[in-house]
Structure formats: C-alpha cells, structure tokens
Amino acid sequence: MYLLFLGLAGLVLKYLEIGPLANWSWWVVLIPFPLAAAWWAWADSTGYTKQKEMDKMDLRKKERIEKQRAAMGMLPKKRK
Known about the structure:
The protein has four helices and no strands. The chain is mostly helical. Helix 1 packs antiparallel against helix 3.
C-alpha cells in the first residue's frame, strides 16, 4: 500500500512539476506502480495476506472472549 501512495505522490508532483521530480523521467516516477502490483501478486500467491487476516480475526476473537469473561466476573486462569 505504501508503494501505491508513493507512486500517487510522485505522479502528482511530476504532473504539477513540483520539486526535483519535475526533472525526472516519467519511467522513474511510475516505477512504484509495477512494484506494488508485484508485491500484491506475491503476497496473494504465498498466502501472506490471508494469514495476516486470520491473525487479526484470532486476536479480535481472543479480546472478545476476555471481555465477556471479565463482564461475567471470570478472571483468566493463572498458570502455576
């Protein structure tokens, strides 16, 4: 996602001819877009994004369970 934002910022700066990007080639300014596409393709093909989503769901589930236990007055078990 960072590469996409970087590419959009570079595109705007190049189009409006602001700063040092005004003198850069369009090819250099557009490099973040194919890099972002390559990152997304890799992340989807390896299961990286799915694993991160599952981790978030597990964390939310654990937090919800702990909140419900605290509301019922059940404290988490202490390990010996």
